[in-house]
Structures are given as structure tokens and as C-alpha cells.
Amino acid sequence: MQEIYCNGNNRIVTLTTDEILDLHNILCVNYELLPEMEQISPPGIKNNDMLESAVSRQLVGSGDYYKYSNIYSNCATLVFGLVKNHSFHNGNKRIGFLSLIKHLYSNGYVISPDLGHKEIFELLRTLANSSLDKHAEIYSKHFYKKHKKLEWTDEIQIKYLSEWLKQNTEHKNTKVKQKTLTINEIDKILKTKNMRTAFSGKYLTISKKNSLIQDLIGKKTFKKEYFIKDSRSVPISLIEQMRKDFSISFLDGIDNSTFYNEEDILSSEIVSYKKIIYKLAKT
């Protein structure tokens, strides 16, 4: 990652070419994340110059001046370049989507969890097909009315992507609106925090694994038991207590998005949005 400072103090984290290649590798080889996805074949870069051109869009400017000087426009121009430049033999829309997720997260933002998957899918599809105006006509009528008589140049498309991102993302520390989780969902999340769960009858036992040193000095494993009325709908109030008990709350530096989406950033985001990625693979 590379940090740039726009207009003096406006800090933006940009993605490097190597990070984009890492995302491509995830799509190519991580079948445990995307077991149903059509294989990217052939894998690899089709045009290295076009890839570098797409990545360098984030840095267009001179001195302390950057053309895309906020998180949304900077992310938008990167995604635009990756999707439109066709830098890879296959999977360009998917790379654009994963880059969108990573760019946002690197700058402290996530896609709003209640946003419809169809809207996201159509954004990438219409961008690739040079028909973003059709997306705006459905999902952003105000923008569409303002620009419908104009030619949708590259800059108008990037402006639309930027405004769409601004409207449909939120800070990763935003309080999650989800009201309940299941035992299985909690178990998956806590495994990423090096914790164990055991459910018996109406009681959920959570324990945090000791480090090797803690085991050697004989430190007792910390455990806590919680009464669960219904494993299909564990209330957020109880989950908040679990987070407090095991120091995995926002106050301890563990943000809500990380906890509730079990984010390891990309692996869980891929799981969350895998249907979109499957569909993008077929368009």
C-alpha cells in the first residue's frame, strides 16, 4: 500500500500493482473460498502496461495535487481502470470488485451491509458494458436526470462511481444493524480471534486459546458460559457482552465490521459477496 496526502492533510491509502496481483491470485487459486466459481482460464496478465496504467490512475497529479483527491473518487478511478483496461486475460470485473473492497477497507470503509447485491452486480456489469447511465437511471435518478443529456465520458462515469460509493459505504466502525447471529456464525467469527466455542443444551461456552508461553507458565484458560435461549437467534445485546468479556470490542481496537463480518478482510468479504462474483464470472 502507498499513502498519499491530498490538499495537505487528506490522507488516502492507494493500492499497488503487487496488491492487485495478489487479488488476482486469490481468484485463481483460492478454491476453498470460491468452490463454485468458474476457473479463471487462462490466468495471468494480458497487458502489463494497461495494468500499470489502471493502478497509476490513483496517483494522477503533480506535487501535492492529486486529481482524485478523496477516498471515493480515488477508489472509483482505480476500479474504472481495472475493469475497462482488460489488463488480465480473464476476471477483470472480479478484480475490479475485490479492489473496490480492499481500497475501501484500507481507508476505513466497507460497503453498506444492507445494500442489495443486485445493485452492486449491475454496477460492475454496466461499467464493463459502457452503460453506467442505465445503472444511474435505476439506482440514482437524481444523478441520471442531471447528466442524461450529456455524453457519458470516462470522467462522468468515474464521477458517478465516486458518488455511488459515497452513498453506499460506511465507516467500518459503524454500529452494525444486524439484530442477531446464530451459534454457527458466532463460532466462525470467534475462530478468527483464536477462540473456541462449545454449545450444550442452552449454554454456550467460550474460551480463548492460550499462547505457547501462557501454557508453559501454566496460565489457566479463560472461559465464560452464556445462557442461550435459541441458537438460531443470539441477540446482539448478548454478543456485545461476549465482546466486552473477551476484549474484542471497539474499545479494544476490534471494529464492528471486523467482528460481525468475520473479516480477515478479503476472505470473508468474498464469502459475503460470492454470489456477485459468481455472476460476474459469467458476464
What does this protein look like?
The protein is of the alpha+beta class and 283 residues long. It has helices spanning 17-29, 48-56, 71-85, 92-106, 117-128, 132-139, 141-147, 154-168, 183-191, 212-216, 236-245, 256-260, 266-272, 274-281; strands at residues 2-6, 10-14, 61-62, 65-66, 109-111, 169-171, 180-181, 195-200, 203-208, 223-227, 234-235. The strands form five sheets. A three-stranded antiparallel sheet has the order 8-9-10, covered by helices on one side. Strands 1-2 form a two-stranded antiparallel sheet. It has a two-stranded antiparallel sheet with strand order 3-4. Helix content is 49%, strand content 14%. The two termini are 30 Å apart. Helix 2 runs antiparallel to helix 3 and helix 6 packs across helix 7 (141-147). A hairpin with a 2-residue loop joins strand 3 (61-62) and strand 4 (65-66). It folds into two domains: 2-173 and 264-281, Up-down Bundle (Four Helix Bundle (Hemerythrin (Met), subunit A)), CATH 1.20.120; 180-254, no CATH class. It is built from 14 helices and eleven strands.
